[in-house]
């Protein structure tokens, strides 16, 4: 399971790099064309905007998997292990609820977007909503896996405030 997730992470990184390269080329090319030749690539803004939206959500998914989102663990670090674990379970349940709301809203927007077209390229606006929908499902799976690890007492569970987590080792004060 971890190997599959690692492979998907690598694929996501490459997709993000490709999208960023295309964005840079389109925007730079458009600037040069506008200033040098008084013309431009009509679809450059639309494609770049769509890629930027996807980059944000894919990046958020990778950051969640790597525990790189900002967090305030000062209070949790002062709690005993069982209280930290309880806080982590509550936080994971709240994240799952928020992700459910996000998935539900993205799904509704995706359905609406199937009927709406972009201005220049005429692609379905559902592509924007899909940028939130699919990464939110991936984030839900990530949170569920870590919640399972916490509840089953696995040593690789990520518990915020864990004094050893910053150094890459599991907590030893069980």
UniProtKB/TrEMBL annotation:
It is a multi-pass membrane protein. It is found in: Cell inner membrane. One of its GO terms (biological process) is C4-dicarboxylate transport. The chain crosses the membrane at residues 12-35, 47-65, 86-103, 123-148. GO terms for molecular function: transmembrane transporter activity. Keywords: Cell inner membrane, Cell membrane, Membrane, Transmembrane, Transmembrane helix, Transport. One of its GO terms (cellular component) is plasma membrane. Residues 23-151 form the Tripartite ATP-independent periplasmic transporters DctQ component domain. Belongs to the TRAP transporter small permease family. The complex comprises the extracytoplasmic solute receptor protein and the two transmembrane proteins. Part of the tripartite ATP-independent periplasmic (TRAP) transport system. This is TRAP transporter small permease protein.
């Amino acid at each position: 399971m971890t190997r599959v997730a690692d492979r998907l992470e690598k694929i996501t990184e490459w997709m993000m790099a490709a999208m960023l390269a295309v964005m840079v080329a389109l925007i730079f090319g458009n600037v040069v064309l506008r200033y040098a030749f008084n013309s431009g690539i009509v679809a450059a803004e639309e494609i770049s905007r769509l890629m930027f939206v996807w980059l944000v959500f894919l990046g958020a998914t990778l950051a969640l998997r790597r525990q790189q989102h900002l967090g305030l663990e000062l209070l949790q670090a002062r709690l005993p292990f069982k209280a930290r674990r309880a806080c982590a379970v509550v936080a994971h349940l709240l994240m799952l609820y928020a992700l459910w709301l996000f998935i539900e809203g993205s799904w509704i927007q995706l359905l609406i977007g199937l009927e709406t077209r972009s201005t220049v390229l005429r692609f379905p606006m559902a592509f924007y909503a899909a940028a939130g929908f699919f990464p939110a499902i991936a984030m839900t799976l990530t949170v569920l896996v870590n919640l399972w690890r916490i509840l089953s007492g696995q040593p690789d569970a990520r518990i915020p405030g864990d004094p050893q987590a910053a150094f890459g080792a599991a907590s030893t004060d069980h």
